[in-house]
DNA sequence: TAACATTGGTTAGTCACTAACGTAAGGGTG
DNA sequence: CACCCTTACGTTAGTGACTAACCAATGTTA
């Protein structure tokens, strides 16, 4: 559907063009200080074209295709595994495929998101949807899990990763992200006893 | 400072007036469908007066004075108690003082927040600050706790309460909120083993 | 009472975002 | 090839949240 054809390729091209200029300008001038009109002008399109490709200004930044991938990985973990361990391991698997090429981009984008109030709000809003996604993946894997249990664990796990990411950005990527994730999940377990 | 004086009382009065009309209109017509201008007109003030009392349209809804209270309760729990239990119990204590008079208002306001994307985003954004608050309360109480541990546990606990609140609203307040909190925290513990 | 501070109104903006047009070029039919 | 339908994009003219600058009125204090 969206694959070949001259038109589809052109569309994808302008999309990338807009996103590229947007991120460049955000890093250079800051998110709030950059207007949609400027981005559109830089990409040589009208501001309407911008909104046809991205529903909001925020959405240029948070195109995370990661969530569905992680959800699949969760569903694929062995059923005997405890729910939180399953999410933990699925996250590590996901990171091992993302980090090799995408480490720097992830760091820059995450920092931009965490330091910009509007984008931060959007991030949390996405988590709302992500919790549902992870919950379904959990309950599909482990049928004895109630919806409430699934939601609690998915939400707690997401909060844990977010904490890892926050810490990672705080130290400017100096620490190893998978290790931070391990330590965060260990902290979660230790807090309960 | 903000207590007596005719002027201070008048100011508080208009503030309450604006907030009252705003919530009424939000419930009647929906959040998005209600403009600031309408709220201001209903309260017989200019839209500038609105923004002098509330920095954003969203802020009319989420005046939660609960966080500092809960933070104090956390800090007051016995040091021997495990961190997550301390938060759990502090939350129950807090609810026992809020629920008697404020149950219906809490339910209505929470539903409004959870069903409105813009307000939901704002809620998550607040949680960012709340995590810091709770983390400090935790580490003050339990000096052996690292910052990462504190943050993970505070974030996980918050995610757990939020799940309880979401479930509470989903069933329209039919279930007992403190009991839902208990079950959510139990679910969190069970997920780890 | 005079000087001050603060609340609120007025006006004129900026910026994100939308709706209703129109146009030109892609792409599958006869 | 000619035909028409689809679609990406532009133009224009809005709406609504939010801000800044300036001004009027009214508590508050010396």
Question: Describe it for me?
Answer:
The structure is a homodimer of 193-residue chains. With 193 residues, chain A is mostly helical. The longest helix of chain A has 33 residues. In chain A, 33% of the residues are buried. Chains A and B meet through helix 6, helix 7 and helix 8 of A and helix 6, helix 7 and helix 8 of B. The structure holds a DNA duplex (30 and 30 nucleotides).
Largest sheet of chain A: none
Proportion of residues in β-strands of chain A: under 5%
* Rg over C-alpha atoms of chain A, rounded to the nearest angstrom: 19 Å
Uncertain parts of chain A: none
Count of individual helical segments of chain A: 8
Instruction: Determine the fraction of residues in helical runs of chain A and give it as a percent range.
Output: over 70%
What's the β-strand tally of chain A? Answer: 0
Counting copies of identical and different chains, the oligomeric state is homodimer
What is the averaged pLDDT score of chain A?
Answer: 92
List the helices and strands of chain A in order: HHHHHHHH
Overall morphology of chain A: globular
Largest protein-protein interface = A-B, 38 and 38 residues
Distance between the termini of chain A: 52 Å
Provide the structure class of chain A: mainly alpha
């Amino acid at each position: 559907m969206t694959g070949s054809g001259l038109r589809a390729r052109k569309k994808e091209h302008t999309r990338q063009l807009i996103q590229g200029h947007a991120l460049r300008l955000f890093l250079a001038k800051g998110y709030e200080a950059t207007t949609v009109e400027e981005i559109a002008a830089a990409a040589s399109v009208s501001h309407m074209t911008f909104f046809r490709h991205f529903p909001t200004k925020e959405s240029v930044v948070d195109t995370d295709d990661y969530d569905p991938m992680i959800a699949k990985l969760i569903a694929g973990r062995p059923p005997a595994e405890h729910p939180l361990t399953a999410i933990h391991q699925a996250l590590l698997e996901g990171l091992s495929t993302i980090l090799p090429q995408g480490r720097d981009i992830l760091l820059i984008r995450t920092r931009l998101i965490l330091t910009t109030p509007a984008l931060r709000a959007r991030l949390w809003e996405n988590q709302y949807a992500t919790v549902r996604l992870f919950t379904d993946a959990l309950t599909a894997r482990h049928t004895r899990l109630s919806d409430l249990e699934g939601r609690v664990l998915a939400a707690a796990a997401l909060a844990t990763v977010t904490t890892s990411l926050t810490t990672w950005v705080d130290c400017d990527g100096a620490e190893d992200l998978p290790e931070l994730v391990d330590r965060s999940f260990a902290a979660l377990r230790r807090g309960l006893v």
